[in-house]
Each structure stands twice: as structure tokens, then as C-alpha cells.
Design goal:
The protein is an alpha+beta fold and 187 residues long. The chain is 21% helix and 24% strand. The protein has a domain of 118 residues: Fusion Protein Consisting Of Minor Coat Protein, Glycine Rich Linker, Tola, And A His Tag, Chain: A, Domain 2, CATH 3.30.1150. The protein starts with a helix and ends in a 33-residue tail after the last strand. Strand 5 and strand 6 form a beta hairpin. The strands form two sheets. Strands 1, 2, 5, 6, 7 and 8 form a six-stranded mixed sheet that branches. A two-stranded antiparallel ribbon has the order 3-4.
Length: 187
């Protein structure tokens, strides 16, 4: 029993701390400015040379996918179809956003390369533009600009049911003060 408890406790702590420190690489490039034109490797810009060490998101590619998933908000864009229960279906699919990690690790040059709807494209851009600083890519130890294409997935089929709004009361009869002069019984 003790072993199961310790295993469960370690698993829970791993989940809590697995989100990582998204500012992990910020200290590497304090005061860094990359305003010079230079080649961009990858994406739709050029091919990846074999000696390229790709830019790295804090925590790796899996953490990048989790970051995108956790920060994407459901968009209320209906496809015009309904399911068997009569619920309107949402537009589903993925938006592909290309961006460049400069030599200072900063994401920039955001561009939608595969679109769904205006609302979903805007949400995908918002999420990708909020990315933290990466560890920049390099070739033979020299920092270079690299391009990424990241999918932002919209997989929700329906919107969750809305909570009914609580009725607004002008006055609360239950808590009105009773006075002996009112003629009402207090019970």
C-alpha cells in the first residue's frame, strides 16, 4: 500500500511540475537584438541542412504541443451541420502557422499557411504569437534563424452547454427585516 501511495504521489507531482519553466532560455539572450538579414532554414524558406541543430522549445516538442493545446480557446464557428441530437456542429480541423525563431530565440514572422476560418486563424495566430523564447538553432555552433510550422488543432465537435443565468432579483424578500409594527408574524 505504501508503494502504491508513493508511486501515486510521485506521478501527481510530476504532472504538477511537468509544465516546466517557459522562461528557461530567456537568460541566454538578455539584451540580444537580431535585426540583420540572414538566411532562414526550414519551413517554406529553404531546406534543412544536415548539420542544423534545430531551435528548441523549453521542454521540447511535446511541451510545445501541450502549450498550444492548453492555450487554444474553443471558437464558436458553426459548420451548418447538426448531429443526431440536433446540436450544431463546429468547424473542425487544424490551422498551420509558420513562424521564424531568430538568433535570439524570439518567435516572429508569423504566417498562416493552412487556414480554416477567420476566427480560428486569428486564434491560432494569437496562441503562436504568445510563445516564449526558444533556444535558437545553430549550424556548427553559430546561431541561425530557423522556421517552424506548428499545427493548432480545433477538434471540438460542439460547444459545451451554457450555464443558465441566475435570475436577477430586485429585492430579496427572505432577508427583509421584520418589525413588530408590520403586523406580520415572524414565523
Amino acid at each position: 500500500m505504501k508503494r502504491i501511495f508513493l508511486t501515486l504521489l510521485s506521478f501527481i507531482s510530476l504532472l504538477l511540475f511537468a509544465q516546466g519553466d517557459y522562461n528557461k532560455y530567456a537568460y541566454l539572450y538578455e539584451g540580444c537584438v537580431d535585426d540583420e538579414e540572414s538566411p532562414i532554414y526550414g519551413g517554406s524558406y529553404s531546406s534543412y541542412p544536415p548539420e542544423l541543430v534545430d531551435a528548441q522549445f523549453p521542454g521540447g516538442d511535446v511541451e510545445l504541443s501541450l502549450y498550444i493545446y492548453r492555450n487554444t480557446e474553443r471558437q464558436e464557428v458553426y459548420s451548418g451541420e447538426t448531429d443526431a441530437d440536433g446540436n450544431q456542429l463546429l468547424v473542425t480541423g487544424e490551422v498551420l502557422v509558420q513562424f521564424v525563431i531568430d538568433r535570439c530565440g524570439k518567435p516572429g514572422r508569423f504566417q498562416v499557411v493552412q487556414s480554416l476560418t477567420e476566427e480560428q486563424d486569428a486564434e491560432a495566430l494569437r496562441v503562436i504569437q504568445s510563445l516564449p523564447i526558444f533556444k535558437s538553432g545553430s549550424i556548427d555552433g553559430i546561431r541561425v534563424k530557423t522556421a517552424y510550422i506548428a499545427p493548432v488543432k480545433f477538434r471540438w465537435k460542439t460547444m459545451p452547454p451554457k450555464e443558465p443565468e441566475a435570475p436577477a432579483y430586485e429585492s430579496d424578500d427572505f432577508f427583509q427585516e421584520w418589525s413588530p409594527d408590520s403586523g406580520d408574524e415572524w414565523w
